[in-house]
Specification:
Blueprint: E1 2-7, H1 15-28, E2 34-36, H2 50-53, H3 60-72, E3 75-83, E4 89-96, E5 102-107, H4 113-119, E6 129-131, E7 134-140, H5 147-155, E8 160-165, H6 172-186, E9 190-194, E10 196-199, E11 202-205, E12 209-211, E13 217-220, E14 226-231, H7 244-247
Parallel strand pairs: 1-2, 2-3, 7-8, 8-9
Antiparallel strand pairs: 1-14, 3-4, 4-5, 6-7, 9-12, 10-11, 12-13
Amino acid sequence: MHVLLGQLCPVPGDVAANVGAIADALAEHPTAELAVFPELFLGGYDLARVAGLAVEVGDPVIGELRAAARDAQTALVVGFAEALPHGGVANAVACIDAGGSLATTYRKTHLFGAGEREAFVAGDALRVTELAGRRAGPLVCFDIEFPEPARALARAGAELLVTVAANMDPYGPDHALAARARALDNRRPHVYVNRCGDEAGMSFAGGSAVIGPDGSVQHQLGRASQLACVELAGGPATGLDADYLQHLRPDLAVEDDQPIPTHGATS
């Protein structure tokens, strides 16, 4: 599979310009089967502005992205602020198939810091959807710092993990490790796309990567703005001994030989 890593810096607050950048990137990379752009790419990562930049999934802006994906025959994953039907805003990902249909919308389930928890409504479900012939599990930034979401997606049948991020300094090394670990944990390839540049007093760390199911980095970008179309080699790892999901024992109890005394207990 050819994957376009869209490690770009969005124009803060200019949704039209950022939609245009995606459409241009798809048109310029006709061999890409899947294109991935960062967290909150459509409006930028300024939590004070996200509510005013949020769009509904039926908005013409999403329609333009669907048309660009259809014209390029490229599946598309991109982060945006979603205006929810019953109020509030989600930190969301639009997953659009190569035919231009909205395959699914995933809403970030693990919100980072007090700022995100104030600005967004957390999602309450993970999603598996088909993109470019693979069953993909989308995740957003902080989600990958927990083993459980990626594991749940893999157990539900995801063949590929796709993470969009707006990971900033000083947390770049955390994501470099977590992105590899989630691939290795589940023996699934992982496409990780982070943004770059500066916004709202933050410097974003870049480091987008394609990671194999053995946790090896097949291709990695630096900190600068860059579009790179790379080959994603292989699918889920094969062979019983390599497949941790086959050996996982969720039935194990934890036995504590030195339990913490309950309140009011006496020796």
